[in-house]
Design goal:
There is one protein chain. By secondary structure, the chain is α+β, with helices and mostly antiparallel strands. It has one domain. 35% of the residues lie in helices and 15% in strands. The protein is elongated, with a radius of gyration of 23 Å.
Length: 234
């Protein structure tokens, strides 16, 4: 018994390839975008874990109940630099007093809508100062302030580019601000130990609202990623 042979005409092959091309054009960019976002989050999560471990370590070493009783409270540049060097492998030391090159591309950052981000080179650290900036062996560029204030509402700041001078250099993609609190927890602005204990951090949703394509500041995106269980849903 002869079997029928299945043959395709050139037109059928071209139509099939065309359909495959259309599907790929629609899906591949989204897949690549999701992959890139997950890569950014993975880098951010690694630094987050390493820094929280370092903050707990300094509390242990100083036999402190919280960071108000450690060397980081009111620390000068030398003390913050020593803390970073004791807890991380440093490949580039950019010194203190300002966020600057070569750790950061201070003139090359953008916000998510593609316009220039104008606040990095002169970014105010509020009641705390830029004490020291370094590049870590993992590629992260970090500027760290001292801890200032009391155990309930005090904080220090960290400006982090998760892949240093490499692209995309976009606020909320690879550039973030983190606040570190007296209990060694990293969170976003105003997420203090006091409001977390009382479960009334009423500014949380407002803070997350700052993470958008037209916002020319650094707040909100790190906290939103935390709140969304380490996913970049924006």
């Amino acid at each position: 018994m002869k079997r029928n042979k299945v043959a395709f005409t050139l037109a059928e092959v071209l139509v099939t390839l065309g359909i495959i091309g259309v599907v790929a054009a629609l899906t591949v960019p989204n897949l690549m975008q999701n992959y890139q976002r997950q890569a950014y989050v993975t880098q951010l999560h690694k630094f987050y874990s390493d820094m929280e471990n370092a903050l707990r370590q300094v509390m242990t070493e100083d036999r402190a109940q919280d960071l108000t009783e450690t060397r980081l409270r009111g620390a000068n540049d030398t003390t913050v630099a020593t803390f970073l060097k004791d807890n991380f492998k440093i490949v580039n030391d950019c010194g203190g007093s300002a966020i600057k090159a070569p750790c950061f591309n201070v003139t090359d950052y953008k916000i998510m809508n593609g316009t220039a981000f104008s606040n990095l080179s002169n970014l105010s650290m509020s009641s705390t100062n830029v004490r020291h900036c370094v590049t870590l062996a993992g590629g992260e560029a970090v500027c760290m302030s001292e801890f200032s204030g009391n155990a309930d509402t005090g904080y220090g700041k960290l400006i982090v580019d998760t892949n240093g001078t490499k692209g995309p250099n976009v606020v909320g993609r690879d550039l973030f601000v983190m606040f570190y609190y007296s209990d060694g927890v990293l969170d976003d602005v105003n997420m203090t130990p006091l409001c977390r204990r009382n479960n009334n951090c009423i500014s949380r949703n407002t803070t997350f609202g700052s993470c958008n394509s037209i916002n020319n500041n650094l707040y909100g995106c790190f906290g939103k990623i935390l709140n969304d269980n380490w996913e970049m849903k924006y």
